[in-house]
């Protein structure tokens, strides 16, 4: 890794500026990764061929390292497609539409589903979006609003749950002497994770208080209600004609596959150290059980099942492209240029008073996660630093510092246009990605400012 100082900020700045100006996230990410490899090659020595070789190697290595997550998304896409083909999603949508009498009820149902699926944010984004899209469309709720609800009940919920892929990762990032008490520390920090808590309060408030949207979201909602344009974005058109939906399916054909997936995921996340492997195996086993549940009952036949699986995998290709590029820019920033270390060093070299450390590390974590799109990267770098500084100065502030680090990481991830969960929330809602980003940032920023004030006050009280 090169010690290149402020030049390490080039890739995230390029990605974010281009994404906001051009509204083309794929080309923005490609340009950002290339800019990072150019900076690395310039400082380490090399030519144009070395730059492109490094680009290819980075993407290949990241795809290989994240193959369990790639398989999980493919299996999950297949499972969602099978459930849809069997008529389970349609049956649920029809049931919900008959019983849900208002837009408020539809929003609340979406939130409740997001709260129930707390195991993993990837699983949450895609499942809730697929199930609730037909319902929210009927009540003329914009896809941007759906994406916001999905995103807000994904990472903020997972970071609060002690049994989730996030909890396992955070505990693994603690210094070794703290890990025996890791779960206890995590639970205490969750109670002080003001961003996650305030985000959930805000999404409930927005759902209950109709007409209180603001910013671009207000315009999106007005367009959805007045012109019946929910802002749907067809992810892929050519070669992806939807397979016909069976008329024999019922709600049970939706509930059983999802319940099986949640059950396997809950069990295997406790058995595996690698959350990606646990989730991939969970999704695969859920597909097997779903086959045994649907085909013998003749809800769909073998050929229809196979066609649905293939269709579901194809629908994941756009999300996988974006994720591969998001992983690539994370590798550039973390492995090549040391962006995280450069940002984090500000808190160490600045000699800030200990009392302002929670507020400061909240800001640093948010900036890091926003610029890299990697909340786990922010957590992995800043949790050890924050715990070490707290232990050496004021151990009583350790829990607050941990909470502030996690809160800032989730906030930055929540706002970032290059974050994997932000991308998947857009995918689940089938909403244009940049519309989701631009409508969500004002809401996240409001909660973030409140968090900053709370951590500043709490730092002086501890």
Q: What does it look like?
A:
- By secondary structure, the chain is an all-alpha fold.
- It has a domain at 67-178 and 242-318.
- Helix content is 76%, strand content 0%.
- It contains 23 helices and no strands.
- The protein has helices spanning 10-22, 25-44, 48-65, 67-85, 88-99, 103-116, 121-138, 143-152, 155-158, 165-173, 182-191, 194-208, 216-227, 252-271, 275-294, 302-315, 317-336, 339-349, 357-372, 375-393, 398-415, 420-429, 433-461.
- The longest helix has 29 residues, at 433-461.
- The chain is globular.
- The protein starts with 9 loop residues before the first helix and ends with a helix.
- The relative contact order is 0.16.
In short:
With 462 residues, this protein is mainly alpha-helical. The protein has helices at 10-22, 25-44, 48-65, 67-85, 88-99, 103-116, 121-138, 143-152, 155-158, 165-173, 182-191, 194-208, 216-227, 252-271, 275-294, 302-315, 317-336, 339-349, 357-372, 375-393, 398-415, 420-429, 433-461.
Overall geometry comes to: globular
Helix content: over 70%
Largest β-sheet summary: none
| End-to-end gap | 37 Å
Helical stretch tally: 23
Strand content: under 5%
Order of helices and strands: HHHHHHHHHHHHHHHHHHHHHHH
Report the mean per-residue pLDDT as an integer.
Answer: 79
Give the beta-strand count.
Answer: 0
Low-confidence stretches: 235-241
- Taking all Cα atoms into account, the compactness measure Rg is 22 Å
- Class derived from helix and strand content: mainly alpha
